[in-house]
């Protein structure tokens, strides 16, 4: 089969021909119909976060059951079923896994992606290959039935919608809250805008680099009052003069109730944080390595809560699936780019550079 792979000693992706994986007794072989693209995996690849190379990339996938092992069949999985694959491997028995905090498991890793803990990871060793391929082998407990009214393309991106749901839940918002969303034109930002009405948010402030891309995203908010801040319009010195904080404080003199931050690098994370109201919350899911410019006493004086969260839980996924199945959530319009497997490298480059409005991108093997 064809697959998009990563090799030891290379920070590039490759299109290779590899064997179709052999499913074991507890496994399901999935015929991949759609696989999601995420630019963050390339940054993690460059940092050495992939422990098993070569590997097939891609932690987001949806498709149909091709083959089910005996244990998988005993749990009700049969060929032809429409499914989405949950990418998060974990032990399923520790205190975190049994209390809906499975992203904290010491075994936590993602298929086709990175491992996060220092512990030995036997599941990751077996199931490190991901979904940017024609077929994918996973243990049966990572499958979720995909409702008939949800496309395979959207099914492959449910993980991102669930991540956005987790960020919004973590913010503990009151009805009518004013929320700043940074990196609002990316995959996570657009998913958050789409979910905002379900959290009773009263006003959104969307922050991103490009005015053109912000104008495209703004329509996702529908009738929800929404302002936008384009970093390219703040002046060339905004990063060193707190230009973003100044602009946000002009829009919100009393401060924001929450910041949902997906900024991957640079000063926008902390400049947005400085626009919080007293007692407000910043939730970070962007992986930004930039250190804060203010001392801890600033947090104390403002009673700010800073919360990091790296992934969703399985219950978040099931909540998104219910919203989609009951048509309370419509999210097919978030899929803006589709490409065949042979063009995955070009699609990844487009996703990283974002030279045009791009929200969610999928590969159709």
TrEMBL record:
Keywords: Metal-binding, Oxidoreductase, Zinc. Its EC number is 1.1.1.329. Residues 188-325 form the Alcohol dehydrogenase-like C-terminal domain. Signal peptide: none annotated. It is an enzyme of class 1 (oxidoreductase). The keyword Disulfide bond does not apply. It catalyses: 2-deoxy-scyllo-inosamine + NADP(+) = 3-amino-2,3-dideoxy-scyllo-inosose + NADPH + H(+); 2-deoxy-scyllo-inosamine + NAD(+) = 3-amino-2,3-dideoxy-scyllo-inosose + NADH + H(+). SUPFAM superfamilies: GroES-like, NAD(P)-binding Rossmann-fold domains. It comes from the Bacteria. Pathway: Metabolic intermediate biosynthesis; 2-deoxystreptamine biosynthesis; 2-deoxystreptamine from D-glucose 6-phosphate: step 3/4. Residues 1-20 are annotated as: Disordered. Pfam families: ADH_N, ADH_zinc_N. PROSITE patterns: ADH_ZINC. Catalyzes the oxidation of 2-deoxy-scyllo-inosamine (DOIA) with NAD(+) or NADP(+), forming 3-amino-2,3-dideoxy-scyllo-inosose (amino-DOI). Belongs to the zinc-containing alcohol dehydrogenase family. DOIA dehydrogenase subfamily. This is 2-deoxy-scyllo-inosamine dehydrogenase. It comes from Streptomyces pyxinae. The lineage of its organism: Bacteria, Bacillati, Actinomycetota, Actinomycetes, Kitasatosporales.
